[in-house]
């Protein structure tokens, strides 16, 4: 019989046991030696030795994976350290003051734009808003209209003073408002980027609110307009107190301010219609106000067509803002009314060849291509060329629109230095008024039109235009505008900035009553302010953003308060400056707004031309 040896070997057990005790003892010793000669596993050793101290395991069982204990410790330690580091960084970020991300510094055109708009704040008449931001200005001329018994317009408070005096001329003021509105319609994104969109819209509304007071804006038919408030004629040695003879702050005016009415003033009425119509597009989101402006524009334009005449005939405006004709205003006003209303009758009028002929569209002349408060033909041609570029209305407008487009191209060619239509000073300033004084107001208008037309071509995917057989890139037009505006901002032989407050060297003796008299709670009478007019000291108040009349044809400039041909700013001049600056400012890739100007224009389906006459043998 065989049994199992618990020590790992077989045991033979004999049934008949005849061995002696000594033999058994000897045999057991042999068995012990045999058993002990074999290695025992841990289980077997535990049977012999009992419970022992266990060794630490080198691995950690995580359930789904078994990892080295050393690696496990390093991993947990790294996680804890990372958490502590992240918490420390978070604490630093929260405790350290945050700095906002700064955009790139604004370019010179943007900086100058912000200042140029401030000039209009300094020119405001009436009860000023709380945040006008011109510390030396206050409420003024609150009796305008009431003090003149001869007029039916009793509330003519508000609007803008024209220049360095306190006269309110509707003709140049309306042109200034039209230019500002045009620039907002085309470049609202750039105004917004400069942070000036609300400011320029407030500037426009201050003016249009006033224009609505100067005629019966609620009527469909009118027979008169208040063309001017104040008087400035000092010819013949007149010494009656008025806005030119006296040198006082507007806030201290106590003399009579007469109202000049007109009953046959096509040029003024059509220009006012253009101002209100263009502004109605600016304020199209305010439907009530926009419609009020449109209604006023319609009424004014009807008056301009019904009662013909030049507004400046027979009154003192002839000395200051004489109008040479009204046919250009007919095209200008009709074009703006078409864009504001979509009524094709206005477009038909604006494209009537007979009116264009009377406006001088088909003949040259020394001032052809010069946009100003007097002649808007060039502006109207650019404005209507826009329609041809983007809408292509076709027959029956195509022929005259093509003519306007071609003439606009020729005008743009005349601005380039390689052509001799206009002279230039040695410093590079184009002489659009042929060497006459107060040149800058014409230059800024040309810079605006050049930049605008180049942006029109870019938006139409057209890289340039032809001047005769030669093709020129749109970059050439923009370069022209930049060189002219750079000249005005200080890149000229005198290193003089002609925009007050821009740069370090600018005119200090601006021909401006409010800026030249200190705000010292002293009310000076009509002649009492003459000492400040004639003083050689710099103005005590800086009229920020005012573009002065500018240098002469030799790049010369006299910073003398008494010489308005050098140092007087105007509404019309600053409006052109603002328009040119916003067009050149900011990112060049941000072009015009193609659609807003056409927001009221219905879809155009060109009328087919009439069939040819029947053939006759």
UniProtKB/TrEMBL annotation:
Organism: Solanum commersonii (Commerson's wild potato)
EC code(s) of this entry: 3.2.1.4
Catalytic reaction annotation: Endohydrolysis of (1->4)-beta-D-glucosidic linkages in cellulose, lichenin and cereal beta-D-glucans
Protein name: Endoglucanase
Domain Glycoside hydrolase family: 109-581
TM stretches of this protein: 74-96
Alphabetically ordered keywords of this record: Carbohydrate metabolism, Cellulose degradation, Glycosidase, Hydrolase, Membrane, Polysaccharide degradation, Transmembrane, Transmembrane helix
InterPro entries (alphabetical): 6-hairpin_glycosidase_sf, 6hp_glycosidase-like_sf, Glyco_hydro_9, Glyco_hydro_9_Asp/Glu_AS, Glyco_hydro_9_His_AS
Similarity field: Belongs to the glycosyl hydrolase 9 (cellulase E) family.
UniProt-annotated stretches for the region Disordered: 1-25
GO biological process terms on file: cellulose catabolic process
GO-annotated molecular function: cellulase activity
Active site: 511, 559, 568
Keyword presence, ATP-binding: no
């Amino acid at each position: 019989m065989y049994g199992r040896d618990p020590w790992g070997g077989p045991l033979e057990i004999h049934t008949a046991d005849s061995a002696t005790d000594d033999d058994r003892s000897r045999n057991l010793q042999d068995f012990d030696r045999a058993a002990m000669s074999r290695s025992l596993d841990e289980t077997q050793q535990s049977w012999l030795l009992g419970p022992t101290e266990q060794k630490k395991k080198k691995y950690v069982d995580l359930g789904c994976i078994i990892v080295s204990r050393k690696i496990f410790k390093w991993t947990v330690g790294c996680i804890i350290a990372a958490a502590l580091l992240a918490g420390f960084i978070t604490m630093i970020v929260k405790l350290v003051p945050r700095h906002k991300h700064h955009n790139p510094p604004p370019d010179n055109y943007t900086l100058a734009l912000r200042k140029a708009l401030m000039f209009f704040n300094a020119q405001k008449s009436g009860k000023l808003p709380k945040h006008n931001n011109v510390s030396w200005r206050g409420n003024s001329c609150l009796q305008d209209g009431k003090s003149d018994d001869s007029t039916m317009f009793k509330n003519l408070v508000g609007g803008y003073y024209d220049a360095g005096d306190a006269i309110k001329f509707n003709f140049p003021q309306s042109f200034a408002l039209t230019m500002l509105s045009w620039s907002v319609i085309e470049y609202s994104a750039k105004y917004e980027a400069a942070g000036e969109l609300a400011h320029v819209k407030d500037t426009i509304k201050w003016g249009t609110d006033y224009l609505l007071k100067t005629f019966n804006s609620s009527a469909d038919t009118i027979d008169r307009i208040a063309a001017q408030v104040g008087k400035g004629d000092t010819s013949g040695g007149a010494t009656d107190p008025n806005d030119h003879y006296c040198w006082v702050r507007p806030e201290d005016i106590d003399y009579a301010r007469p109202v000049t009415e007109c009953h046959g003033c096509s040029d003024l009425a059509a220009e006012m219609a253009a101002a209100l119509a263009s502004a109605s597009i600016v304020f199209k989101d305010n439907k009530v106000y926009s419609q009020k402006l449109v209604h006023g524009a319609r009424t004014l334009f009807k008056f301009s067509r019904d009662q013909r005449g030049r507004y400046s005939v027979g009154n003192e405006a002839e000395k200051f803002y004489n109008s040479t004709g009204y046919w250009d205003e007919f095209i200008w006003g009709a074009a703006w009314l078409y864009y504001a209303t979509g009524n094709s009758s206005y477009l038909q009028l604006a494209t009537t060849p007979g009116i264009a002929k009377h406006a001088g569209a088909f003949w040259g002349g020394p001032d052809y291509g010069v946009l100003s408060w007097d002649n808007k033909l060039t502006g109207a041609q650019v404005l209507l060329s826009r329609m041809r570029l983007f809408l292509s209305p076709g027959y029956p407008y195509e022929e005259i629109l093509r003519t306007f487009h071609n003439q606009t191209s020729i005008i743009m060619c005349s601005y380039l230095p390689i052509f001799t239509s206009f002279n230039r000073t040695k410093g590079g300033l184009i002489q659009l008024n042929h060497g006459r004084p107060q040149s800058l107001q014409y230059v800024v208008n040309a810079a605006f039109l050049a930049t605008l037309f180049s942006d029109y071509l870019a938006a139409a995917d057209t890289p340039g235009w032809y001047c005769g057989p030669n093709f020129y890139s749109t970059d050439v037009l923009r370069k022209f505008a930049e060189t002219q505006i750079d000249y005005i901002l200080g890149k000229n032989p005198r290193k003089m900035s002609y925009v007050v407050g821009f740069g370090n060297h600018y005119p200090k003796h601006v021909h401006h009553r409010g800026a030249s008299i200190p705000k010292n709670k002293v009310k000076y009478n009509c002649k009492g302010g003459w000492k400040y007019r004639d003083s050689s000291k710099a103005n005590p108040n800086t009229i920020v953003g005012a573009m002065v009349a500018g240098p002469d044809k030799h790049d010369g400039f006299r910073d003398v308060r008494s010489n308005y041909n050098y140092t007087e700013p105007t509404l019309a001049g600053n409006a052109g400056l603002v328009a040119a600056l916003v067009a050149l400012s900011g990112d060049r890739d941000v072009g015009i707004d193609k659609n807003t100007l056409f927001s009221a224009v219905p879809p155009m389906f060109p009328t087919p031309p009439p069939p040819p006459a029947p053939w006759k043998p």
